[in-house]
Design a protein that fits this description.
InterPro entries: DUF4333 (IPR025637). Residues 21-90 form the DUF4333 domain. Residues 1-24 form the signal peptide. This protein is mainly beta. It has one domain. It has one helix and eight strands, in the order βββαβββββ. The protein has a five-stranded antiparallel beta sheet, with helices on one face. The chain has a three-stranded antiparallel beta sheet with strand order 2-3-5. A hairpin with a 2-residue loop joins β6 and β7 (77-89).
Length: 100
């Protein structure tokens, strides 16, 4: 399933609103970790920052408050990110990405 992204004017990672398509993984609906990784890479690289090797620990469960931790090389240093589900609307998962 393809993920969809809503891009707003705000460039801050902590307030980024991302929408991912939900897929059935095992018995729970989730956004695939590869989709979360792509969104992190897209959001950071769009600001002109060099990012590579984005890796998330797990799929992001389609449940409000669910999280997954991620790491990436940003301008040569390893940085940590967290994806947190802010709401679920049918098959659409709204989640934010924050540093740390």
């Amino acid at each position: 399933m393809t993920s969809r992204v809503r891009r707003g004017a705000a460039a801050a990672l902590t307030s980024a609103l991302l929408i991912g398509g939900v897929t059935a993984c095992s018995s729970e609906a989730a956004v695939k970790k590869s989709d979360v990784e792509k969104q992190i890479e897209s959001r950071i690289s769009s600001s002109g920052t060099n990012i590579k090797d984005v890796k998330c620990d797990d799929n992001l469960k389609a449940k409000k408050g669910a999280t997954t931790d991620c790491e990436a090389k940003v301008d040569g240093t390893t940085q940590k990110f967290k994806a947190t589900v802010t709401s679920v609307d049918g098959k659409t998962v709204h989640y934010s990405i924050s540093k740390g």
